[in-house]
Amino acid sequence: SIGGMLIFALLVSLTTSGFEEQLNQLRHGAQPVVEGGHTVILGWKPMACDIIDELCIAAQGRGGGAIVVLAPLPKPAVEAQIQERQIDFRNSVVAIRSGDAHVKEDLERVAVPSAQAVLVLANADTEEEDADSRTLRVLLTLYSQGWPKAENA
Fold first, then answer.
1. Distance between CA 53 and CA 76 in Å, rounded?
2. Contact 88/64 with Cβ under 8 angstroms?
3. In sequence order, which ranges of the chain are alpha helices (DSSP H)?
4. Which residues of 42-53 are buried (b: 16+ CB within 10 A; e: fewer)?
5. If we measure between CA atoms, which residue out of 42, 22, 39, 40 comes closest to residue 31?
6. What's the number of CA atoms in the CB half-sphere (13 Å) around residue 124?
7. pTM for the complete prediction?
């Protein structure tokens, strides 16, 4: 009976730690997006809130849409900026993920291959040449992944 209690305690402990890890991944935007036909915004700057607002207005007639943001900032920081702006999502769903737009695995995590549209935001904090080179690197990474597909083009 003591052995059974130990095994039960071990199972409860493993289940709890696995559940906590899943919640932590959700909080920090580490889970992959399971969407198709969505809009992806790569990069982050304050004007992204205006873009999200306009995309929500545009999708309102279709009952809302899905918008995924891949930002170099932590997910809680981006969510806080969006909440500050008090954007009305109008039945749209906005998902935030943290990562780099020129990293193939991060692009796969935001489901770029199945996206309807991808917006690449230039970094306003750098010089034009650096921002252009970053944008070109992102576009080359997208192209190497086969985006846009023939049906998206």
1. 19
2. no
3. 2-27, 47-59, 75-85, 104-109, 128-144
4. bbbeeebbebbb
5. 22
6. 6
7. 0.77
Cα–Cα distance, 98 to 1 (Å, whole number): 47
Count of other CB atoms within 10 angstroms of residue 39: 22
Question: pLDDT of 88-111, one tens digit each?
Answer: 999 999 999 999 988 888 998 898
Q: State the Cα angle at 140 between 46 and 94, rounded to 5°.
A: 35
pLDDT per position as a tens digit, 32-56: 777 788 999 999 988 899 999 999 9
Residue found by looking up tokens 């052995």 in the block? 3
55-76 pLDDT, tens digit per residue, is: 999 999 889 999 999 999 988 8
Q: What CA–CA distance (Å, rounded) separates 31 from 95?
A: 10
